[in-house]
Amino acid sequence: MLKTILAISGKPGLYKLVRQGKNMLIVEALADKKRIPAYAHDKVISLGDIAMYTVEDDVPLGDVLEALKEKTAGNPVDLKSFKDDSEVRAFFKEVLPDFDEDRVYTEKNKKLFSWYNQLIAAGITEFKDAEENAEEETATAEEK
Predict the structure, then answer these.
(1) Other Cβ atoms within 10 Å of 83 Cβ, number
(2) What would the DSSP string read from start to end of 30-87?
(3) Using CA atoms, how far apart are residues 112 and 82, in angstroms rounded to an integer?
(4) pLDDT tens for the chain, residues 1 to 144
(5) What is the pTM of this model?
(6) If DSSP codes are grouped into helix, strand and coil, which group holds residue 8?
(7) How many CB atoms are closer than 10 A to CB 48?
(8) Is 93 in contact with 85 (CB distance < 8 Å)?
(9) Which of 11, 42, 43, 120 has the fewest CB atoms in 10 Å of its CB?
């Protein structure tokens, strides 16, 4: 699901890929459903291609969002409840305990929480593809 959700540098919010055209993409804002073009010169990244730094390996964004969903019981993160950056980092440490504190900045944590809130508001609550979930279940069953 996250493969079709896009972040566009210089444009606020998240967008859903609607259609690919020649030298551009047609995207729809998750917030207001307004469609706009994203051109080849725009820096567009799929949320499915993003990973968070941890001490050992990088963790796909879908896994981080799933952990955040479990932590918040599917509710949005109240960004105004954090008094300072240390509270943001402490909350994120509860979500992803082994994140690399030297390479993951507080601004990125806040952006992740904002993206999560936008996805929840748009009704997107499944952050992993069905294929990924099936692979994980098979791997877990094999370990036992």
Answers:
(1) 8
(2) TTT--EEEEETTS-EEEGGG-EE-BSSS-EEHHHHHHHHHHHHTTPPP-GGG--SHHH
(3) 14
(4) 789 999 999 899 999 999 998 889 999 999 999 999 999 899 999 999 999 999 999 999 999 999 999 999 999 999 999 999 999 999 999 999 999 989 999 999 999 999 999 999 999 999 987 555 445 554 444 555
(5) 0.84
(6) strand
(7) 19
(8) no
(9) 43
Q: Measure the CA–CA gap between 98 and 56, rounded to whole angstroms.
A: 8
- Name residue, tokens 């098979």: 138
Structure-token pair, residue 98: 């082994």
- Residue in the block written with tokens 């207001």: 32
State CA 39 to chain mean position distance.
22
Is residue 82 within 8 A of residue 94, CB to CB? The reply is no
